[in-house]
Amino acid sequence: MTVPVWAWIAVIGGLLVILALDLWIVDRGEPREFSLRQAGFWVGFYVTLAIIFGVVLWATAGPTPAGEFFAGYITEYSLSVDNLFVFYIIMTRFAVPKIHQHKVLLIGILMALVMRGIFIAAGAAALANFGWLFYIFGAFLLYTAVQLVRQHGHDEEEFTENAVLRWARRALPHTDDYVGSKIFVKIDGKRLVTPMLIVMVAIGTTDLLFALDSIPAIFGLTTDAFIVFTANAFALMGLRQLYFLLGGLLQRLVYLSYGLAFILGFIGVKLILEALHSSGVSWAPEVPISLSLSVIGVTMVVTTVASLAKSRRDVRKGNEIPTSPKAKQG
Q1: Which residues have C-beta within 8 Å of that of residue 275, sequence separation ≥ 6?
Q2: What residues pair up with 184 in beta bridges, in sequence order?
Q3: Which residues contact 40 (CB under 8 A, 6 or more apart)?
Q4: What is the predominant subcellular site recorded for this chain (predicted)?
Q5: Rounded distance between C-alpha atoms, residue 197 and residue 256, angstroms
Q6: Contact in structure between 103 and 238 (CB atoms under 8 Å)
Q7: Distance CA 141, CA 143 (A)
Q8: How far apart are CA 273 and CA 279, in angstroms?
Q9: What is the DSSP letter of 192?
């Protein structure tokens, strides 16, 4: 799909305006905790926005690009749910006050969006010139799927700092305590950063590690950089509200890792089959996007229903609900 430059500018500009409006509405006045009602409104708003974008894409570009967008969006959104528990661990590790958590998530997600944009551009260029990378992506997704199944049920309550975060903590002079929601402060004439910046770096860079499997997954559904970027952007935009909306529900999605493993495995096989098909292997089929969209949607519905049903049975039996879903390895 050929996308003119003005369309890129319009979409990116529109997303930034919406995010700025979101931040202004939420942060005006005194800092306060994100209410369940507020979170539900914004989650619904961003999901509706994604649906409208997909419908517009259908009307202007046809059903195939629109189907690729919806399949990519559902996949990225589903993978993002598995990331939320890790975000919770980071918030706890850095003792972020609840009234400031929404701001930390927003800035961290904006950082992740910029870095993912760079990653997507590099990935699209590489795939366009090196077709054999599809085999690498496919094999990596299959490996990740196996790891998700093997790690199911193992709590990962320890957050391991990545290299960028360790550098930031060493190189940036910072205060020991939070200073409201400020990122920078001046004490005795010396400019310091607060833990707010450090935790934002933690959120943003950790999300980039998660992109190591989510980006190859969506490239398995479409190689169109515009669709890959917009699907990622819409999935990330509503992520912070979803963090507050789900709350304890995350504890009940006990089969989430199985569902995500199946989706990643399916996309991995799809990538390899289509790479073989492109190489002239007669028996290797092309997997239509309609089938991909159906498999992804049905898998997430079945996973969610089965998880909630099991949690309900555990509660009736008096069993303890797992304290966390499996946190995905980057």
Answers
A1: 131, 132, 134, 135, 138
A2: 193
A3: 241, 245
A4: membrane
A5: 31
A6: no
A7: 5
A8: 10
A9: E
**pLDDT over 90 percentage in the chain:** 15
Going 33 to 39 to 42 to 46, the CA torsion angle's sign is: positive
Q: Residue 321 has what DSSP assignment?
A: P
What type of residue is 80?
A: S
DSSP 161: P
**Tens digit of pLDDT for each residue in 167-195?**
887 888 888 788 877 888 888 888 888 88
Enumerate the domain spans of the chain. Answer: 5-317
What is the spatial distance between Cα 35 and Cα 122, in angstroms, rounded to a whole number?
39
Distance of CA 227 to the CA centre of its chain: 15
pTM of the prediction?
0.78
Please give the C-alpha separations between residue 232 and each of 112, 115, 120, 155, in angstroms, as whole numbers: 10, 11, 10, 27
pLDDT at residue 326 greater than cutoff 50? no
Reported as a single tens digit per residue, the pLDDT across 105-116 is 877 777 777 878
Place of tokens 């990962």: 156
End-to-end alpha carbon distance in the chain: 30
CA distance 250 to 243: 9
